[in-house]
Write a structure and sequence with these properties.
The protein is of the alpha/beta class. It has helices at residues 15-43, 45-152, 154-172, 212-219, 223-248, 265-274, 276-284, 292-369, and strands at residues 4-8, 11-14, 178-180, 192-195, 202-206, 254-261, 287-290. It folds into 2 domains: 4-117, no CATH class; 153-360, no CATH class. The strands form 2 sheets. It has a 5-stranded mixed sheet with strand order 3-4-5-6-7, sandwiched between helices. A hairpin with a 2-residue loop joins strand 1 and strand 2. Helix 2 packs across helix 3 (154-172) and helix 3 (154-172) packs parallel to helix 8 (292-369). It starts with a strand and ends in a 25-residue tail after the last helix.
């Protein structure tokens, strides 16, 4: 009877508890019937009869419930025996599976240990790489902090923009066509003055772009702060454009337009995206705002102009040299003609010399062909001819 019959609300219920429960339920129902009967008797007789009928029906139901309870107890006993048998089988199966699982877990743990050791080795290598990267990142952070300090200082920021502009110009133009910090006739000193060939007026480039307001705009938090920073950007850039137009536009000395150099592509993009009115105002003032890439493009265009001017100058020099070369060739032809005349005269002289030599040779041969006999006795002997004997040439 202490065996578990069923589970009710996560609580195991034994057969005895189930029997007591059913008995209690029967007792409760009986009490309810008696109460109902008692209340019905106090009301009226019809209700009493109805209560008695209900009591009889309840008795029938209780009897039926007792019968069903007996059947349920028999079935539960059978189920308990079946569950006991299946529990034994389940315990045996679980033991077998636990043995297999224990072996699998052991093999898996061994493999996991091996993989963990390999992973730890790789992790050590990656940690070394990360450590190196962290060191590089620390150095880069220091450089970024240094750059931030440079950009925070107005003079250092101006020197930074000036340095970037000078590097771009030096890479693209010969030194004869630009000057840094020159002094104009008005006493003003622009950051750079570029002189294009064929035009004595210089092109002014200013590198002192006001970056303080953009720094405030990026650090602004909230709509009101951003609105104030945007107004500061418009005011600072507009005033700087006005200063460039008033200081550096000198008729006959500088071009009627100037370049304002922005040392950051990001700031240039923000300026065009959010401050188009400032760009238009600068255009109306004939001040072109340029980024590093646009300045490099303009310098390349100027380099092409310088190259074309040099080619034209070299073409004139070549034409002059060709003219001189033609004069030299003409004089050479005249001298060759004179030399040819000399050669012909010399050839005539040689021919005449050959003729004279032929005549001399002929006469010498005739003289050589003569024969002279010894002097006769009756012929007087000249004193100076005693020792002279002439013979014909052999």
């Amino acid at each position: 009877m202490n065996q578990i019959a069923f589970v009710l609300l996560e609580r195991p219920v034994s057969w005895a508890e189930a029997a007591f429960g059913f008995a209690g339920l029967t007792l409760v129902l009986l009490v309810l019937a008696l109460l109902s009967s008692w209340r019905g008797s106090r009301r009226r007789e019809l209700e009493a009869a109805l209560a008695a009928e209900r009591a009889r029906e309840m008795d029938d139901k209780v009897a039926e419930m007792n019968r069903q309870q007996a059947e349920l107890m028999g079935r539960m006993q059978t189920m308990a025996e079946i569950l006991s048998t299946r529990q034994g089988d389940l315990a045996r199966i679980m033991a077998e599976r636990m043995d297999g699982l224990r072996q699998q877990v052991g093999a898996g743990l061994e493999q996991n240990v091996r993989q963990t050791n390999e992973s730890l080795g790789k992790l050590q290598e990656r940690l070394a790489v990360i450590d190196n990267a962290q060191k590089n990142l620390t150095e880069l952070t220091g450089e970024v902090v240094t750059l931030k300090d440079v950009l925070a200082n107005k003079q250092a920021r101006g020197a930074y923009g000036q340095g970037r502009m000078e590097a771009i110009i030096r890479d693209g133009l010969p030194a004869a066509f630009f000057a840094f910090q020159p002094t104009l006739s008005s006493g003003k000193r622009p950051d750079c003055l570029i002189t294009l060939p064929g035009d004595g007026r210089g092109l002014v480039i200013d590198a002192k772009f006001p970056l303080e307001s953009f720094t405030m705009l990026r650090e602004a938090r909230g709509d009101e702060a951003k609105k104030q920073a945007s107004a500061r950007v418009r005011a600072d850039v507009g005033q700087h454009v006005k200063d460039i137009a008033e200081r550096y536009f000198l008729p006959g000395e500088t071009q009627d337009m100037a370049l304002l150099f922005v040392p950051s592509e990001a700031i240039y993009a923000d300026l065009h995206e959010h401050f188009d009115d400032v760009i238009q105002k600068a255009h109306r003032a004939r001040v072109m705002i340029v980024s590093p890439s646009l300045l490099a493009l303009a310098i390349q265009l100027m380099q092409s102009l310088v190259r074309d001017a040099r080619m034209r100058e070299e073409a004139r020099v070549i034409q002059s040299e060709v003219g001189k070369l033609l004069d030299d060739v003409r004089r050479l032809g005249e001298r060759v003609d004179k030399l040819d005349n000399h050669f012909r005269q010399a050839q005539d002289d040689v021919s005449q010399i050959k003729t004279s030599a032929g005549k001399v040779t002929g006469r010498a041969e005739k003289i050589g062909a003569l024969e002279f006999d010894d002097a006769r006795p009756n012929e007087p002997q000249l004193p100076f001819a005693k020792a002279v004997k002439l013979k014909a040439a052999e």
